[in-house]
């Protein structure tokens, strides 16, 4: 919701600062593409895989930042900004697990797309 703050926080990240010019735009575009893929039965598995990979990368980033950095910038909004970094990591692990469960269930129970 606060794109300028998101850009600033990425530029302050020790791991992502070199990519701060294009990464915020790339993340938003990728999220919109994944959201679109999730809307249609024919592309839902692709969207779930994309969501799983994106959440896995973000969870790995949080794990890395927690263990290597003193300065921990965060541009999260809503309830996530009230969480500590360790709570955020646990929340993200839960999201990754839910995404994996959704993918497995979609593969198992979905009807073929037309």
Automatic annotation (TrEMBL):
InterPro entries associated with the record: Methylamine_util_MauE
Annotated coiled-coil segments of the chain: none
Stretches that traverse the bilayer: 20-40, 47-69, 89-107
Domain (Methylamine utilisation protein MauE): residue spans on this chain: 2-104
Topology term for the membrane: Multi-pass membrane protein
UniProt-annotated location(s): Membrane
Protein's UniProt keywords contain Coiled coil: no
A Pfam family hit: MauE
Superkingdom of source: Bacteria
Any Gene Ontology biological process: methylamine metabolic process
Subcellular location, principal: membrane
Keywords: Membrane, Transmembrane, Transmembrane helix
GO CC annotations, alphabetized: membrane
Protein name: Methylamine utilisation protein MauE domain-containing protein
């Amino acid at each position: 919701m606060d794109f300028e703050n998101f850009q600033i926080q990425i530029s302050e990240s020790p791991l992502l600062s070199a990519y701060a010019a294009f990464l915020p735009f790339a993340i938003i575009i990728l999220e919109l593409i994944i959201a679109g893929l999730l809307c249609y039965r024919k592309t839902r598995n692709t969207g779930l895989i994309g969501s799983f990979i994106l959440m896995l990368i973000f969870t790995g980033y949080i794990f890395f930042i927690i263990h290597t950095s003193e300065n921990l910038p965060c541009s999260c909004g809503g309830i996530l900004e009230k969480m500590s970094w360790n709570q955020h990591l646990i929340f993200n692990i839960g999201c990754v697990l839910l995404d994996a469960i959704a993918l497995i269930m979609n593969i198992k129970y979905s009807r073929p797309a037309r």
